[in-house]
Design goal:
single chain, 71 residues, mainly alpha, 3 helices, 86% helix, elongated, Plasmid_RepB
Length: 71
């Protein structure tokens, strides 16, 4: 029983931490999304990423296409 109480305490602490940082995390993601969208609208940047860093391009594209933050 004591172990369960300790685990619940730990989970509660982790939840509180996530709750405290959520707003800042969302703001950072919104800003990053906007910045990446502008970068990817630049044809030279897009060409470079396509040729040299296709893995990064894929990840950046995933971030730009996030729609959950727009609702």
């Amino acid at each position: 029983m004591a172990k369960m109480e300790r685990e619940m305490g730990y989970i509660q602490e982790q939840f509180n931490l996530a709750e405290q940082t959520y707003g800042q995390d969302v703001l950072n993601l919104v800003l990053a999304k906007g910045y990446l969208a502008k970068l990817m609208a630049n044809e030279a940047v897009l060409r470079h990423l396509t040729k040299k860093h296709p893995d990064m391009l894929s990840e950046f594209d995933s971030i730009v296409r996030l729609v959950m933050l727009e609702k």
